[in-house]
Amino acid sequence: MLAGMASPENGGAAGPAPRTPAPGPGPARGAPGPAAPRAPAAPPPLPDASQPRFVSDLDVLIRARYPLIYLVSWEEQRLDAILDETARRHGKALLGWSVTKGLRRLGGARTPSPEGARDPNEALAAVEKLTEPSLVVLKDFHPFLNDPTVVRALRELAHALKSTYTTVILLSPVLQIPTELEKEVTVLDVPMPSARELLDLLKEIAEVVRRGNRAVVDLRKEDAEQLVKAAQGLTLSEAENAFAKAIAADQRLSKDDLHLVLDEKRQVIRKSGLLEYYPTEETLANVGGVENLKTWLARRGGAFSEPARRFGLPEPKGLLLLGVQGCGKSLTAKAIASSWRMPLLRLDMGRIFSGLVGSSEENLRRAIRVAESVAPVVLWVDEIEKGLSGSGSSGQSDGGVTARVFGAMLTWLQEKTAPVFVVATANRIDLLPPELLRKGRFDEIFFIDLPAAAERREILRIHLARRGRDPSGYDLDALARAAEAFSGAELEQAVVAALYDAFAEGRELAPPHVERAIRETVPLATTMREDIERLREWARTRTRAASSVPAEDVPRPPIATRFG
Ligand SMILES: Nc1ncnc2c1ncn2[C@@H]1O[C@H](COP(=O)(O)OP(=O)(O)O)[C@@H](O)[C@H]1O
Ligand SMILES: [Mg+2]
After folding, report:
1. Candidates 492, 532, 549: which one to mutate for ligand 1, based on the most atoms within 8 Å of Cβ?
2. From atom 26 of ligand 1, which residue's Cα is the shortest distance away?
3. What are the pLDDT digits (tens) for 88-122?
4. Angle of helix 258-272 relative to helix 221-231, nearest 10 degrees?
5. Are the CB atoms for 286 and 466 separated by under 8 Å?
6. Is-contact 316 303, C-beta < 8 A?
7. How far apart are CA 241 and CA 284, in angstroms?
8. Percentage of the chain surpassing pLDDT 70?
9. What pLDDT, in 10s, does the model give residues 202-235?
10. Among 331, 455, 462, which residue has the most ligand 1 atoms within 8 Å of its CB, making it the best to mutate?
11. Which H helix or E strand runs over 253?
C-alpha cells in the first residue's frame, strides 16, 4: 500500500518528511477562521465498497478541508471521472485548470463558472475569489512550481482556503513539491486500476465490439480473468490500447491475446527505467552449499499458494542476503524466482538515486507500484548498499533524500500486503542503515560466507556438470582442498580457465587442467583477510549462517601478493 509511504506513521528519523498530516483536525492545520465553522459542507458520502481506497481517503481530506491535495497519476481521464463523481457527492463545483485551457468549469454541482486565467498566478488569484464550495483541479502544475512567485501564491492560497469549503487538487504524473509547500500539501497516491476496474473496461469494450459486429469476442469467464490479470499494472488507457491492439490484430478477442497484453506490460516496465524483467533459468540445484538457506527456502516455496493462506500462513516478505562477494547471493536471488515459478524483477538502487529519471522518492514509489501490480513476483534489490555509497561520496542526494528513500523502503517492507517477495543482497555492511536489519523488515537475514571444503566440492561438481563434463572423473575432494578460500565465482572461473587451456592444447579437459588453474589463482579472500574476519565477527550475532558447515579460517596471502 503506497499511501502508507507518505504517512507520518513511518516514524523514526529515516521516515519521509511529514508532508502528509493524518486526516482529521489537527494542530498542523492551524485554526480555522471564525467565519467558517469546521463542520462538513455536505453529509458524509455514503461508503461504497466498490470504490478504490484512495477515493475514500480523498473524501476524508476534502471533508476535513485540507486545502492542497497532490494526486500522483498519469491517468487524467480516469481521474476526471472520479473527481467529477467526488465533486457531486460533496455538492461542490468542479473546476479545472491547465496551461492550454486556463481555468474553467468541468462539472460537479450546477453553478455558473469563472472563465479564463491561463496564467498560473492569475488562476490562483481567481481560485481565491471563488465564493461557492469548489474542487479545483490543477493539471500538470508541477513545472510552475519552479517559479518562486507561484510557490508563494500557492502557499498564501492554502492559508486562505483553510476557512473556505474549496479544495485545490494538484494532478500530475510526477511528485514535485518545493520545500516551502511541504507542510501545506497532502500527497495521495493513485493506485493503478484494480482488477475490477480493468474487468469493467474489458466488458465495456467487448460490449461495443459485439454490438457493432466488428469483431468476434470469444472469452470465457476464466479467460477474461486471465486477460485482466495480465493487464494489471497498466493504466486504463494503456489497457484499452492493449485490448484494442489485440482485437485489431485478427478481429478477435480471445485468450490467445494474453501474450499481447503481457508484451504491453513488459513495455511499461522497460519504460520505467528502474525495473527490469530478468528472465532466468537458474535453479537451486545450481547453487552449491548454503544448505540452511536452501532448507529455509524449500519450507517457504509453497507459502504463496491459496492452501497456505487457508492454513493461516502469512505470505513470506523477503530475505536479506549479506556476505562475501562472489559466493552466490545474486545466483540465489535468481534461483528463488525460477524455482518458485515467479517472475523476477530487478530493482536498480543506483538508478533510483541517479536523478536521471526523476526524484529519488518518486522513483521508488513508481518502482514499488509497478512491482505490486505484477505480484506475485520476486523483487530483487541487488547490492542495496549501492545507492547509499553513491550518495555519501557524490553529495548529489544529501538533504536527507537517502534517509527518506530508505525510510519509505523500510515502511513498505514492513507494511506491504501484496505478494512481493523481496530479495535484497549486500556485500558491505558498514553502509547499511541499522533499521534495515531490525526485525519485521525481512523474514530472515542470511550470511553467505566463503564455501567450506565440502561446499567447494559441490560447486566444482556443479560447474563441471554445467559444462557437460562428468564430475566423477575428477578427484573433487583433492581439488576442493587445493582451492582453499576460493569463492564460488573463483571456483567457476578455475573451471572455465581449465577449459580454455584444454581447448588451446587441442585436448579434452582433464583433471590436471583444473588442478593447474586452481594453483594459479590467488583467491581474493586472502588479500581481504581482515575485512572478511570483521564481517564474520559482525555477522555472528546478527544473522543466520546460510551454510550448515562452519567456515574455515582465511589463510594469509602468499608472500608474492603481499609484497609483489
Ligand atoms: N554457491 C555457489 N554455487 C554455484 N555457483 C556459484 C556459487 N557462488 C557463486 N557461484 C558462481 O559465481 C557466479 C557469481 O556469483 P554471484 O551470485 O554473482 O555472487 P555474489 O552476488 O554473492 O557476489 C555465479 O553466477 C555462479 O556461477
Ligand atoms: Mg551479486
Report:
1. 492
2. 489
3. 999 999 999 999 989 998 875 555 455 678 899 99
4. 10
5. yes
6. yes
7. 39
8. 85
9. 999 989 888 888 788 888 888 888 888 888 878 8
10. 331
11. strand 252-254
Q: Residue 432's closest CA among 526, 299, 535, 546?
A: 535
CB 328 near ligand 1, within 6 Å: yes
360 pocket-lining for ligand 1 (C-beta < 6 Å): no
Q: How far apart are CA 298 and CA 541, in angstroms?
A: 24
Q: Evaluate if residue 41 carries a pLDDT over 90.
A: no
Q: Return the bridge partners of 446, or none.
A: 321, 544
The per-residue DSSP string of 381-445 comes to ETTTTHHHHHHHHH-TTTTTHHHHHHHHHHHHHHH--S-EEEEEEES-STTS-GGGGSBTTBSEE
For atom 12 of ligand 1, the residue with the nearest CA is 489
User: Given pLDDT bands bounded at 50, 70 and 90, which one contains residue 136?
Assistant: very high
Helix (H, G, I), strand (E, B) or coil at 202: helix
Contact between 209 and 253 under an 8 Å Cβ cutoff? The reply is yes
DSSP per position, 76-117: HHHHHHHHHHHHHHTT-EEEEEETTTEEEEEEESS-----B-
Q: Which atom of ligand 1 is nearest to the CA of 455?
A: 1
Residue 247 · residue 208 · CB < 8 Å: no
Task: Please name which of 329, 229, 396 lies closest in space to residue 543, comparing C-alpha atoms.
Answer: 329
pLDDT bucket at 519, cuts 50 / 70 / 90:
very high
Alpha-carbon distance of 242 to 89, in angstroms, equals: 33
Instruction: Indicate if ligand 1 lies below 6 Å from the C-beta of 462.
Output: yes
The residue whose CA is least distant from atom 18 of ligand 1 is 330
Other CB atoms within 10 A of residue 50 CB? 9
Q: Where are the alpha helices (DSSP H) in 174-257?
A: 195-212, 221-231, 236-250
CA–centroid distance, 355 to ligand 1, in Å, is: 31
Task: State residue 152 phi and psi, 5-degree precision.
Answer: -65, -45
Q: Are 288 and 462 in contact (CB under 8 A)?
A: yes
Q: Report pLDDT for 113.
A: 53
> pTM of this prediction?
0.69
Look at residues 435, 429, 331, 449 and name the one whose alpha carbon lies nearest to residue 380: 331
